[in-house]
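Morning. Coffee machine broken again, so started the prediction first thing and wrote up yesterday's gels while waiting. Chain of 155 residues, entered below exactly as on the submission form.
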Amino acid sequence: MNSDVVSVQIRGILPANSGCAIFIGNDEKVFVIQVEHNLGAIIGMFLRDTPKERPLTHDLILNVFSGFGVTVERVVINQLKNSTYYARLIMKQENELGTKLLELDARPSDCLALAAAQKKPIYVAKSLFDTVEDMTEYLERLNEGGGESDTECED
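Came back before lunch.
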């Protein structure tokens, strides 16, 4: 991976006014992306490998990908415009004709869910990472308050 992106992980999921706050970052900085409540719960389920009675939408997507020889390679959160984050889903397709890389525009919440489900890497564009507000101290205070930071955004 080149220096245009920064490797990050999902560091916590907490309920927020309009859904769930997904804390994303590394040892240098953590920032927040707001997602719908149900997607926050789904991302948390994938992170904890929670068994499900029936496949969820993201499970279905991954099953369809698999049927076409497509695997998720990584996700890149690449832009912030008008308080909305944008992301790219990077996939690889292998079949009898060869290998092809695919890159799609996708919501960060869906990208994070697919990355969590498949344990794939998450990156942030360095130019974006350098500009987002650092929420590390806030997340640390919440974690000191007790309890797990990814268990409260559940259905």
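The CA atoms of residues 90 and 103 lie 5 Å apart. Going to sketch it on the whiteboard this afternoon.
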